[in-house]
Specification:
heterodimer, A: alpha/beta, seven-stranded parallel sheet, five-stranded parallel sheet, about 25% strand, B: about 260 residues, alpha/beta, Rossmann fold, nine-stranded mixed sheet, 6 helices, 14 strands, binds flavin-adenine dinucleotide, binds iron/sulfur cluster
Chain lengths: ~400, ~260
């Protein structure tokens, strides 16, 4: 609870203007906290007289934190291939491990993983725990979760990272709950706090409207799911040495109550837009489903994939796997070209971490221009064909 | 069929925006709504009830005003509503939230299905559903996009994946989290609205659910928010000049690294 010492409060209002959630107000010269308070602690620091205090934050240290050591990365393997985010996680995992001066381990769960474990070592892992079993060909929360939980309990790593993918965001929360560990969702920044070696986990919340930095002071391991395309993978180094530990799954770990009947790859929507470096995105300005033909031409020319707003997905012009935004996918490509997109907060939430954003819109006041690095005001049906021609010409010269 | 649906009251995302100058979320006119994904969960529960018979209980943890979303769910066809509300729950992270909801579910009693939204649009973690299932020791499936088959003993489902979907079968009891593709929520009927107005909402406190004070609210939360700040402002937009063709030329220049 946020405790306000009425005798100390001078009613200066610092806390009111500092609270990101609008939860504290000044009533009759004294601060009053409302139900919107998330106990984020922002106001406490701004109160010079020291009238504010968060109670209950200090827990009696429940476990021996020092006995947990090492950085772990869950490496996602599906349909015979490693998810690219796994290598990105090894990149950041290596940095964290070096800062902490501890080893970096990878956990590889799947079937017929072949040379993948070697690849993980070449990308930074010191140790790979390989659990390769035909029964693990299909992802299930129960089997993957049980195996991961047992490995963590046996080896006690201080940090566990996984990709914020459909799979990572599904089974990792179950693992964290069983372990009694804090889990930070969809992180975009990770760092080690100098004073105490704690993991600083930064993530967007409220549909990307705010960033929050989170720590897990009294629980281990510190767990995060990490957004794809944000961290840098290390370059492949075939000389790197590491060891592979084979782990046999227990029969009871493989017994699942959810049965996989089949696993379907959508043909049309085969590309995962989260993995694409270039995205050409279309909105209602395209006028009809036909407008996407033009988007496809541009995407093809640039070697990119197609993204879309919810408005056009709802209209049925293109499938949901292409939707970017708060209720769609979050993407962070190198280049995002937004055509006929107004730039509603819910859309921007899903694409604002793109490296370069280009906006094409006929309304010069469209909010999309606020987040764009380059903007062209005009009719997309005129601009995009011209853009295509000029790109072709540039390539020839 | 006994179905419990967990619903959360959230600020309407349309209105939420961080003011980069004051560093606070704009609060004027921010309305509270039912988490959009949870509306789909309520709808699916009511459809399953219509198909298989039974009853739907909606459950929310939150401040007293969260009653509003519970009443909204009643007006859309849910039968009973339970609000767990206590100052001691303040500051709960997803670990403490799933603990609290699990305790409340145990007080409500036996169930066949537990439904959640995929994620709440404020906290945005998508962690409460899986956490709740683990605590109740029941299997779970996240991101359900379609119920293909529903019988008295179990379900066949489609669960959305990054590269397509998986078709899964399971028996009750189980927990599912819903994406918006699953259905189109109905608008409340007049009769439903009348019922919602009158219905007595069952209120539970931390003591009523037998919660361990060390597991709820801030003390029960392994994660702690230490800092909140606005997202980095993007660099200023480059302004192109000249005719449209010249502007496009300048754009192509700027895009050279990507060509
Ligand atoms: C809870 C919630 C969740 C949501 N989640 C998402 C989400 O995940 N993703 C998402 O995208 N949206 C989401 N939305 C919807 C969002 O608020 C907007 O409605 C949506 O993004 C608008 O799509 P749009 O830009 O395609 O359409 P519009 O807002 O209609 O914009 C069309 C734009 O095209 C321009 N235009 C028209 N014709 C031309 C032309 N010929 N040439 C150039 N420009 C032209 C117009 O000037 C206009 O700016 C959500 C909304 C809510 C309430
Ligand atoms: C800025 C910020 C960042 C945060 N980041 C994290 C984090 O990284 N990790 C973490 O553990 N906590 C985090 N929290 C705390 C978290 O938001 C709360 O624990 C919240 O109560 C539940 O999480 P959620 O909103 O993400 O729900 P989700 O897990 O996204 O919700 C999924 C579903 O669970 C059900 N549900 C969720 N909450 C309730 C409820 N109160 N009553 C009934 N049903 C419910 C609904 O069906 C909902 O659709 C953060 C809080 C803030 C303010
Ligand atoms: S900052 Fe401190 S002194 Fe100023 S109004 Fe807030 S509680 Fe009172
Ligand atoms: S603790 Fe955070 S949410 Fe609560 S009043 Fe202070 S600044 Fe606002």
């Amino acid at each position: 609870m946020l405790i306000i010492d009425k005798d100390v409060c001078i009613g200066c209002g610092n806390c009111e203007s500092a609270c990101p959630f609008g939860a504290i107000t000044i009533v009759d010269g004294c601060a009053v906290v409302g139900d919107g308070c998330t106990l984020c602690g922002t106001c406490v620091e701004t109160c010079d007289p020291g009238a504010l205090k968060i109670e209950g934050a200090e827990k009696s240290a429940p476990l021996d934190l020092a006995s947990w050591s090492g950085v772990w990365v869950y490496c996602e393997f599906r349909r015979g291939a490693l998810a690219p985010v796994s290598l990105e996680l090894l990149g950041i995992g290596r940095r964290l491990a070096d800062t902490r001066n501890v080893p970096l381990s990878a956990v590889l769960i799947g079937s017929e993983t072949g040379e993948t474990a070697r690849q993980l070592i070449a990308h930074g892992a010191d140790t790979v725990y390989r659990i390769d079993d035909p029964a693990l060909a299909h992802f299930t929360d129960e089997a993957y979760g049980a195996i991961m939980t047992a490995l963590i309990q046996q080896n006690k790593p201080e940090i566990v990272l996984a990709g914020a993918t459909a799979i990572g965001r599904s089974f990792i929360p179950g693992v964290a709950t069983t372990l009694g560990a804090g889990l930070t969702a969809d992180c975009t920044q990770l760092a080690i706090r100098e004073e105490d070696g704690a993991l600083l986990q930064t993530r967007p919340a409220f549909g990307g409207n705010i960033m929050a930095t989170i720590v897990c002071p009294n629980s281990r391991p510190q767990m995060s799911t990490v957004r794809p395309k944000v961290m840098q993978a290390l370059t492949f180094d075939g000389e790197r040495q590491g060891n592979i530990v084979e782990v046999k799954p227990m029969p009871e770990q493989l017994a699942t109550r959810v049965r996989v009947i089949e696993s379907v790859v959508s043909e049309e929507d085969n590309v995962n837009i989260q993995e694409s470096d270039i995205l050409v995105a279309g909105g209602r300005g395209l006028d009809s489903a036909k407008g996407f033909t033009l988007m496809r031409e541009l995407a093809e020319s640039l070697g990119g994939a197609i993204a879309a707003t919810r408005a056009v997905v709802d209209a049925g012009w293109i499938g949901y796997p292409h939707q970017v935004g708060q209720t769609g996918k979050t993407v962070a490509p190198k280049l995002y070209i937004a055509c006929g997109i107004s730039g509603a907060v819910q859309h921007v939430a899903g694409m604002q971490s793109a490296e370069t954003i280009v906006a094409i819109n006929r309304d010069k006041d469209a909010p999309i221009f606020d987040v764009a690095d380059f903007g062209l005001v005009g009719d997309l049906f005129e601009i995009v064909p011209k853009l295509l021609t000029q790109i072709e010409e540039r390539r020839k010269s | 069929m006994k179905i419990i649906v967990c619903i959360k009251q959230v600020p309407d995302a349309k209105d939420v925006r961080l003011d980069p100058k004051t560093n606070t979320l704009a609060r004027e006119g921010v309305q509270s709504i039912m988490n959009p994904y949870d509306q789909h969960a309520v709808e699916e529960a009511v459809r399953l009830k219509e198909l298989l018979g039974g009853e739907v209980t909606v459950l929310s943890m939150g401040p007293p005003q969260a009653e509003e979303v519970l009443r909204q769910a009643i007006s859309c066809g849910a039968d009973h509503a339970v609000l767990v509300s206590d100052r001691a729950f303040a500051g709960a992270d997803t670990w403490a939230t799933s603990y609290t909801l699990a305790k409340a579910v145990n007080v409500i009693g036996a169930f066949d299905l537990l439904l959640c939204g995929k994620q709440a649009i404020d906290g945005d973690t998508a962690q409460v559903g899986p956490g709740l299932a683990m605590r109740l020791q029941i299997p779970y499936v996240t991101c359900v996009q379609k119920v293909r088959q529903a019988t008295d003993s179990g379900l066949v489902l489609e669960r959305m994946m990054d590269d397509g979907y998986d078709v899964l079968a399971l028996d009750y009891p189980a927990l599912l989290t819903m994406v918006k593709d699953i259905n189109e929520p109905r608008v409340p009927s007049l009769k439903g609205k009348m019922r919602a107005k009158k219905l007595e909402i069952r209120k539970l406190t931390a003591a009523d659910i037998g919660a361990d004070p060390a597991c709820i609210g801030l003390p029960g939360s392994p994660t702690q928010v230490v800092k909140v700040f606005p997202p980095e402002a993007r660099c200023q937009r480059a302004v192109f000049t000249g005719s449209l063709d010249e502007q496009i030329g300048q754009l192509v220049d700027s895009l050279q690294p990507y060509l």
